[in-house]
Amino acid sequence: MALGEPSASQPLLLDQYERLHALLDEISETASTDCSDTDLLKVAMEHERAERRMLTSFAAHIIDIDERSAYRKAGSQTVTNFVTSVLNRSGEANRLLNRVWAIGKFPDMQGEVLEPRFPETAKGVAEGEISGRNVDVIVEVMKKIPVAVDPADREAAEATLAHYASDYDPSSLRQLGTRILAHLDPDGTLTDDRDRARMRGMRLGPQDAQLMSKLTADLDPKTRAMLDVVLAVWAAPGMNNPDDPESPVGDPGSADPDALAAAAERDNRSAAKRNHDAFSALLRYALDSGALGGSHHGLPPHLIVTITESALRERAGAPARTATGTLLPIKDAVELAAESQQYLEVFRDHTSEVLYLGRAKRLASRAQRIAAVGRDGGCTCPRCTRSSFDSELHHVAEWTADDGPTDIDNMTTACGPHNRAVGPGDDQWATTIATDGVDAGRVVWRPPTSHPDQTRRSITPTARRGPQPHASRRPTTPVGWPRGSRIVRADGYRRRSTLTIR
Fold first, then answer.
1. Contact, 118 vs 102, CB < 8 A?
2. Where does the record place the region Disordered (predicted)?
3. How far is residue 209 CA from its own chain's centroid?
4. Dihedrals φ, ψ of 17, to 5°?
5. Residue 243: exposed, middle, or buried by beta-carbon count in 10 A (0-12, 13-18, 19+)?
6. Is the pTM of this model over 0.85?
7. DSSP category for residue 83
8. What is the residue-wise DSSP string for 40-80?
């Protein structure tokens, strides 16, 4: 076959990537003994240049996949989901797609291919002069330029950043970007409501090894003004102090003035800690007040905690887990449980609410939704990290008037996109119930027959890749399930209690 011609079995592009992999094999097997020290440095530089250049072709392929909605053939609902789950780029999908957004050539409504949003950056990447991390910085800086800035000045800013990106590291390039922003809008008068609306946001980071989470936000002026007032009242010295059992809690208007003054004298918290404790008290106030309504995806809008009975009894063990996927130290879970014994007793002593609805209802009951929290811990589709609070109950055997019962063992937790992704088409997932083995009684997700990797034919709970951020997927019978449930609890598994915390 001549170079550049497609084989009879596959298109030219796949042939080219096969040759690329063959060349990479040759490179990895080639010794560097005949290279001088200078040659070795050149090898490393050429390797870096080649890796940078690959971003251009990656962007073109991702744009094509998105335009064709080809990601559906792999069982994905969006191109972001494809990058996350199929390409296994979880945690960096948004950053990668921002790079594609910056340097890719997108078609317009008529199908005409447009030039990249940041043409000089795209050129530098194509030549291997600009790294992906520096593309991230350029995108970050360009998004901060006010809408009112003259387009010519905007283009000049991008060209300047791209010019220096080949020599600067990300930190130095970001400093240059700060100087450019100051030059374009020295007194901040060009920034208007459009810019503030575009930049607003709040981001909650993952829990770290100490189970702490970082909350960062870009607040618009109105939100900042309201927050200032709230913190001035709820974070006042002496208010909502978890270290002081006599500190007034909740609505400051109902606090005894003398008790508040005494608590303020004892309060040695920093302003940051007072703000944190006020925020916690506000969240508790919102949960207790009923302001969140009566239901969210069939779950009560309260804290729902899954914990083993032994951990609850001994106040020790692995952290408990909430319906949103958050880990709670056992001490915190026990304290919350002490305030909601009515719910604890319901689930320990078998709720009177019927978990088996047979074929009478299409929708799962609240008790079934809460029971599924303890069993599934979140969306059960492989590699999905959506929590139970962001998910629904999916009927494994599709519900009809005559079939597909709304029984707890015919349902599994699935987020909205994956719930809708199940169907009979060759680009849809299929779900069944395992009948034997360690996953007996648990849902099995079968990838679409159109999936490009046909080695992924059947994925069970124990076959999922890596640790999941949800509760254990092991087949466990939650406390409170009626006898006769077909989901069998294997010997040695600890029973779990599902606590609903007001």
1. yes
2. 238-259, 444-484
3. 18
4. -70, -35
5. exposed
6. no
7. I
8. HHHHHHHHHHHHHHHHHHHHHHHHHHHHHTGGGGGT-SSHH
Residues for the chain: how many in total? 502
DSSP secondary structure string for all residues of 97-137: HHHHHHH---B-TTSPBPPPSSHHHHHHHHTT-S-HHHHHH
Residues 190, 153: Cα–Cα separation, whole Å: 13
The one-letter amino acid code at 162 reads: A
More confident residue, 433 or 241: 241
**438-472: per-residue pLDDT in tens?**
777 778 888 888 777 765 545 544 444 333 333 33
Please list, residue by residue across 387-402, b when 16 or more beta carbons sit within 10 angstroms of its beta carbon and e when fewer do. bbbbbbbbbbeebeee
- Cα separation, 486 vs 83, in Å, equals 37
The Cα–Cα gap between 330 and 314 comes to 9
Largest CA distance in the chain: 91
Neighbours of 410 (CB within 10 A): 20
Bridge partners (DSSP) of residue 395 are: 411
Q: How far apart are CA 389 and CA 303, in angstroms?
A: 10
Which residues are 431's β-sheet partners?
A: 445
Helices (H) and strands (E) in the chain, counts: 17, 10
Whether residue 474 is predicted with pLDDT greater than 90 in this model: the reply is: no
What number of other Cβ atoms are within 10 A of residue 279's Cβ?
17
Rounded Cα distance between 264 and 436, Å, is 62
Residue 148 makes CB contacts below 8 A (sequence gap 6+) with: 190, 191, 192
Q: Is 276 exposed, middle or buried (0-12, 13-18, 19+ CB in 10 A)?
A: middle
- Could you report the per-residue pLDDT of 259-317, keeping only the tens digit for each? 889 999 999 999 999 999 999 998 888 877 777 765 555 555 567 777 666 666 666 66
CB within 8 A of 166, min separation 6: which ones?
124, 129, 130
CB 476 within 8 A of CB 375: yes
- In terms of Cα–Cα distance, which of 216, 139, 145 is closest to 173? 139
Q: Is residue 144 within a helix (H) or strand (E), and if so which, with residue range?
A: helix 132-144
